[in-house]
Amino acid sequence: MGLNWYVLRVQSGREDRICENLQKRVRAANLEASLPKALVPTEVVSEIKNGKKRNYRRKIYPGYLLVQMDLTDDVWFLIRETGGIGDFVGAHGRPAPMEPGDVEKLLGEMKATQEKPKVKIEFQKGESVKIKEGPFESFEGIVDAVIPEKGLVKVVVTIFGRPTPVELEYWQVESV
Protein backbone atom coordinates (compact mmCIF):
# COMPACT_ATOMS: atom_id res chain seq x y z
CA MET A 1 0.00 0.00 0.00
CA GLY A 2 2.91 2.39 0.66
CA LEU A 3 3.52 5.26 3.04
CA ASN A 4 0.79 7.90 3.18
CA TRP A 5 0.02 10.75 5.57
CA TYR A 6 -3.08 10.47 7.75
CA VAL A 7 -4.74 12.77 10.28
CA LEU A 8 -5.64 11.52 13.77
CA ARG A 9 -8.01 13.18 16.22
CA VAL A 10 -6.43 13.38 19.66
CA GLN A 11 -7.21 15.01 23.00
CA SER A 12 -6.77 18.75 22.66
CA GLY A 13 -3.95 20.17 24.79
CA ARG A 14 -2.15 16.80 25.00
CA GLU A 15 -0.98 16.55 21.38
CA ASP A 16 2.76 16.58 22.18
CA ARG A 17 2.51 13.96 24.93
CA ILE A 18 0.33 11.68 22.79
CA CYS A 19 2.75 12.02 19.85
CA GLU A 20 5.73 11.06 22.07
CA ASN A 21 3.78 8.15 23.54
CA LEU A 22 2.85 6.89 20.05
CA GLN A 23 6.48 7.09 18.90
CA LYS A 24 7.64 5.13 21.98
CA ARG A 25 5.04 2.42 21.32
CA VAL A 26 6.10 2.21 17.65
CA ARG A 27 9.76 1.72 18.68
CA ALA A 28 8.78 -0.88 21.30
CA ALA A 29 6.73 -2.83 18.72
CA ASN A 30 9.55 -2.49 16.15
CA LEU A 31 7.23 -0.89 13.57
CA GLU A 32 9.42 2.11 12.60
CA ALA A 33 9.35 1.04 8.94
CA SER A 34 5.54 1.08 8.87
CA LEU A 35 5.13 4.32 10.87
CA PRO A 36 8.29 6.44 10.43
CA LYS A 37 6.88 9.87 11.36
CA ALA A 38 4.31 11.30 13.73
CA LEU A 39 4.15 15.05 14.32
CA VAL A 40 2.07 17.84 15.75
CA PRO A 41 1.62 20.57 13.09
CA THR A 42 3.03 23.76 14.63
CA GLU A 43 4.26 27.15 13.51
CA VAL A 44 6.63 29.61 15.17
CA VAL A 45 4.99 32.96 15.96
CA SER A 46 6.83 36.13 16.93
CA GLU A 47 5.28 38.86 19.06
CA ILE A 48 6.44 41.90 20.98
CA LYS A 49 5.00 42.43 24.47
CA ASN A 50 6.23 45.05 26.91
CA GLY A 51 9.05 45.94 24.52
CA LYS A 52 10.41 42.37 24.42
CA LYS A 53 10.31 40.14 21.38
CA ARG A 54 9.52 36.50 21.99
CA ASN A 55 8.98 33.51 19.74
CA TYR A 56 6.69 30.65 20.66
CA ARG A 57 5.27 27.54 19.01
CA ARG A 58 1.57 27.56 18.18
CA LYS A 59 -0.38 24.51 17.08
CA ILE A 60 -1.81 24.98 13.59
CA TYR A 61 -4.53 22.37 14.14
CA PRO A 62 -5.18 21.86 17.87
CA GLY A 63 -6.55 18.39 18.60
CA TYR A 64 -4.95 16.74 15.57
CA LEU A 65 -1.81 14.71 14.87
CA LEU A 66 -0.24 13.86 11.51
CA VAL A 67 1.23 10.40 10.96
CA GLN A 68 3.09 8.99 7.97
CA MET A 69 2.44 5.28 7.81
CA ASP A 70 1.69 2.14 5.87
CA LEU A 71 -1.78 1.24 7.08
CA THR A 72 -1.39 -2.41 8.11
CA ASP A 73 -3.39 -4.32 10.71
CA ASP A 74 -0.50 -4.12 13.21
CA VAL A 75 -0.19 -0.34 12.85
CA TRP A 76 -3.98 0.12 12.97
CA PHE A 77 -4.18 -1.86 16.23
CA LEU A 78 -1.19 -0.02 17.76
CA ILE A 79 -2.74 3.38 17.01
CA ARG A 80 -6.22 2.40 18.22
CA GLU A 81 -4.77 1.13 21.53
CA THR A 82 -2.68 4.26 22.22
CA GLY A 83 -4.23 6.42 24.95
CA GLY A 84 -5.54 9.83 23.97
CA ILE A 85 -6.09 9.00 20.30
CA GLY A 86 -9.67 9.25 19.11
CA ASP A 87 -9.96 8.14 15.52
CA PHE A 88 -8.77 8.80 11.98
CA VAL A 89 -10.13 11.61 9.85
CA GLY A 90 -12.04 10.06 6.97
CA ALA A 91 -15.47 9.14 5.71
CA HIS A 92 -17.52 6.32 7.25
CA GLY A 93 -14.86 5.39 9.81
CA ARG A 94 -12.28 4.58 7.11
CA PRO A 95 -8.98 6.49 7.26
CA ALA A 96 -8.51 8.80 4.27
CA PRO A 97 -4.93 9.62 3.26
CA MET A 98 -4.01 13.27 2.77
CA GLU A 99 -3.31 14.53 -0.73
CA PRO A 100 0.47 14.76 -1.41
CA GLY A 101 0.12 18.45 -2.41
CA ASP A 102 -1.58 19.27 0.91
CA VAL A 103 1.16 17.48 2.86
CA GLU A 104 3.93 19.33 0.98
CA LYS A 105 2.19 22.67 1.55
CA LEU A 106 1.73 22.04 5.30
CA LEU A 107 5.29 20.79 5.83
CA GLY A 108 6.61 23.74 3.79
CA GLU A 109 4.70 26.22 5.96
CA MET A 110 6.02 24.56 9.12
CA LYS A 111 9.61 24.76 7.83
CA ALA A 112 9.19 28.38 6.68
CA THR A 113 8.06 29.52 10.13
CA GLN A 114 11.04 27.72 11.70
CA GLU A 115 13.39 29.87 9.58
CA LYS A 116 11.37 33.11 9.73
CA PRO A 117 8.70 33.25 12.45
CA LYS A 118 5.25 34.52 11.55
CA VAL A 119 4.46 37.94 13.05
CA LYS A 120 1.42 38.08 15.31
CA ILE A 121 -0.55 41.29 14.76
CA GLU A 122 -3.73 41.68 16.79
CA PHE A 123 -5.17 44.76 15.09
CA GLN A 124 -8.31 44.76 12.93
CA LYS A 125 -9.34 47.14 10.15
CA GLY A 126 -11.43 49.98 11.60
CA GLU A 127 -9.95 49.70 15.11
CA SER A 128 -8.97 52.91 16.95
CA VAL A 129 -5.28 53.04 17.87
CA LYS A 130 -2.79 55.41 19.42
CA ILE A 131 0.72 55.80 18.04
CA LYS A 132 3.24 55.30 20.84
CA GLU A 133 6.52 55.81 18.98
CA GLY A 134 7.93 57.70 15.99
CA PRO A 135 7.25 61.11 14.43
CA PHE A 136 3.48 60.77 14.96
CA GLU A 137 3.80 59.83 18.65
CA SER A 138 0.59 60.39 20.71
CA PHE A 139 -1.57 60.81 17.56
CA GLU A 140 -4.73 58.74 17.39
CA GLY A 141 -6.04 57.13 14.23
CA ILE A 142 -8.00 54.31 12.66
CA VAL A 143 -6.43 51.12 11.29
CA ASP A 144 -6.92 51.09 7.51
CA ALA A 145 -5.00 47.89 6.69
CA VAL A 146 -2.88 45.22 8.36
CA ILE A 147 0.08 43.79 6.42
CA PRO A 148 1.27 40.77 8.47
CA GLU A 149 3.90 39.68 5.90
CA LYS A 150 5.83 42.89 6.50
CA GLY A 151 4.75 43.48 10.11
CA LEU A 152 3.11 46.79 9.18
CA VAL A 153 -0.12 48.52 10.10
CA LYS A 154 -1.52 51.29 7.90
CA VAL A 155 -3.19 53.93 10.09
CA VAL A 156 -5.21 56.94 8.92
CA VAL A 157 -4.24 59.94 11.07
CA THR A 158 -5.82 63.42 10.88
CA ILE A 159 -3.09 66.02 10.29
CA PHE A 160 -4.10 69.68 9.81
CA GLY A 161 -7.72 68.58 9.41
CA ARG A 162 -6.96 66.10 6.59
CA PRO A 163 -6.89 62.31 6.81
CA THR A 164 -3.38 61.02 6.05
CA PRO A 165 -2.43 57.32 5.73
CA VAL A 166 0.74 56.36 7.63
CA GLU A 167 2.51 52.98 7.54
CA LEU A 168 3.90 51.96 10.94
CA GLU A 169 5.52 48.90 12.47
CA TYR A 170 2.92 46.92 14.43
CA TRP A 171 4.74 47.50 17.73
CA GLN A 172 4.59 51.30 17.27
CA VAL A 173 0.81 51.39 17.87
CA GLU A 174 -1.48 50.31 20.68
CA SER A 175 -5.23 49.86 20.99
CA VAL A 176 -7.19 52.73 22.51
Can you walk through the features of this model?
A five-stranded antiparallel sheet has the order 11-10-9-8-12, with no helix packed on it. It has 176 residues and is α+β, with helices and mostly antiparallel strands. It has three helices and twelve strands, in the order E-H-E-E-E-E-H-E-H-E-E-E-E-E-E. A hairpin with a 2-residue loop joins strand 3 (42-49) and strand 4 (52-59). The protein has helices at 15-28, 73-80, 100-115; strands at 4-10, 37-39, 42-49, 52-59, 64-69, 85-88, 118-119, 128-131, 140-147, 152-159, 162-169, 173-175. It folds into two domains: 4-119, NusG, N-terminal domain (Alpha-Beta Plaits, 2-Layer Sandwich); 128-175, SH3 type barrels (Roll). The model has no long low-confidence stretch (mean pLDDT 90). It is 22% helix and 39% strand.
